[in-house]
Design a protein that fits this description.
Number of helices of chain B: 9
Strand content of chain A: under 5%
Distance between the termini of chain A: 33 Å
Number of domains of chain B: 2
Strand order of the largest sheet of chain B: 6-7-8-3-9-10
Strand order of the largest sheet of chain A: 1-2
Helix content of chain B: 25-40%
Order of helices and strands of chain A: HHHHHEHHHHEHHHH
CATH class of the largest domain in chain B: Alpha Beta
Largest interface: A-B, 36 and 53 residues
Strand content of chain B: 15-25%
Helix content of chain A: over 70%
Largest sheet of chain B: 6 strands, mixed
Structural class of chain B: alpha/beta
Shape of chain B: globular
Number of strands of chain B: 10
Number of helices of chain A: 13
Oligomer: heterodimer
Largest sheet of chain A: 2 strands, antiparallel
Radius of gyration of chain A: 20 Å
CATH architecture of the largest domain in chain B: 3-Layer(aba) Sandwich
Number of strands of chain A: 2
Distance between the termini of chain B: 32 Å
CATH topology of the largest domain in chain B: Rossmann fold
Shape of chain A: globular
Amino acid sequence: MSVVSTSAPARAPVLAPRVKAALVLFTLFALFPPVVTALDDPFLILIGTRILAYAIAAMALDLILGYGAMVSFGHAAYLGFGTYAVAILSSYGIHDILLQTAAAIALSAVFAFVTGAISLRTRGVYFIMITLAFGQMAFFFFISLSAYGGDDGYGLRQRSTLFGSDVLENEYALYYATLVVLIGLFALSHRIVGSRFGRVLTGIRENATRMEAIGYSPFRYQLTAFVISGCMTSIAGVFLANQAEFVSPAFMSWHRSGELIVMVVLGGIGTLSGAIGGAVAALLLEEFLGKLTEHWRLWFGLFLVLMVLFSPRGITGLIQQIQQGRAR
Amino acid sequence: MSRLVVENLNKSFGALTVTDDVSLTVEPGELHAIIGPNGAGKTTLVAQLSGQLAPDSGRVTLDGRDITRASMPERVRMGLARSFQITQILPGFTVLENVALAVQARQGSSFRFFGDVVRETALNDAAMAALAEAGIDERAAAIASELSHGEHRRLELAMALATKPSTLLLDEPLAGVGGEESDAFVARLMAMKGRFTMLLIEHDMDAVFALADRVSVLVYGRIIATGAPDEVRADPAVRTAYLGDEEEIPA
């Protein structure tokens, strides 16, 4: 009975979020602005902020996709709620980022609770289709919102304020603010995944029948995770709106939902840090391939195919293989 | 009062009647075995008793409470746990984590989002106790998918035990287990007798006649005999319908 110490038993490696990888990424992110300044190309900072915002969204999606096996194809809706929370409140003179974020989270919580409760009655491809359908409903709602430009979108007159200060107008400040939020949400997600709740969620992913047979009703845990993920994704939207100083329904189209899934899969599902790395990789590829050729999507597609074929666990899996190769 | 009472349970899939007016009781502390040839509807019966499948008609009560419409998780929380004929585990989890999760379902809330569950000594200790009872404690740190078949059967039992049940539905716990391993498993079930109320579905006749207080014989979804092992073995209807006239019944 004492073969394993009960206080700190071995953790299943497939479930462990890659904290070290995340710390490396965060360090690189923190060093990015000085490098950009040295290169004298301040536009890169804006690209960096965009990457960080998408990293938040991808990580939030990984929480349900990787740990809960819920493939939401409508997650761009929450990005949209975040961006429109900024635009709509700001048009009423409420510029405070905390209030805007609170509104984004509240709206997302309600939407995720209602649509999640319905979507979770289905499984597999039906779940994917129904989340897509709800995402499209949100998309067309904002298209028809003519007061905020409808299809054309809506330019922000100013960025959000933080405690009354317009510090976020500074590109560096916005970048580091996004980074701090990313790190905070990573820490939060990491705690959740390693908690009692996280273990139940992962258990349902592993074998839902078994979980029912030991007394769990999967629905309530899956729905809770779905709501948490939606709320976190909307925070990414708040920063995207500030980064672009523009909001439009394009943020919530189903293409965008697909891109979020691509980021998570590309980075390696169920690792949290993989989703962050996947967001970086996908957006950098888009940036650089886009400069080389207008047919960049073709090459990006080829890259994805190769990745999925040769490293189903994404960039995370690739790095592990290299590390293991070295250890041998 | 009987612990588990099944009254006039019926279930059909189309024209095929798989459970035909089944009534049985399991007394507290009793080990009641159900035997029957392949396709007799044993697993379908367990599925209805555990809440996985709804019967067409009939009633199931546990300690006098009607649980006919209760879901599987609800029944587990009332103390009715089951093991599966085809192993159901969490393959990517360690053996200890599999069982700790079953303990967690009984102990406190699972809506705790902070605090490292790996370090929850209370969960791990209770899990280790269940693992020891099922004889798989030395494999606690192994990833569940890497266990042998026999070890999987023991993990099945450990997970059912970890929910602290009053009543166990054991669906062919010995399926695919042979030789010494099977003897050890029977000894383990023997040691559990009296402390748990058990409904045992089993193919292994030696095991059934060694363990059971009462035996029911299920043929084509219908119970044709119930009684002490010796009575059932001597029952002429059982001999013709199930065991075959000429075949010697193992003692």
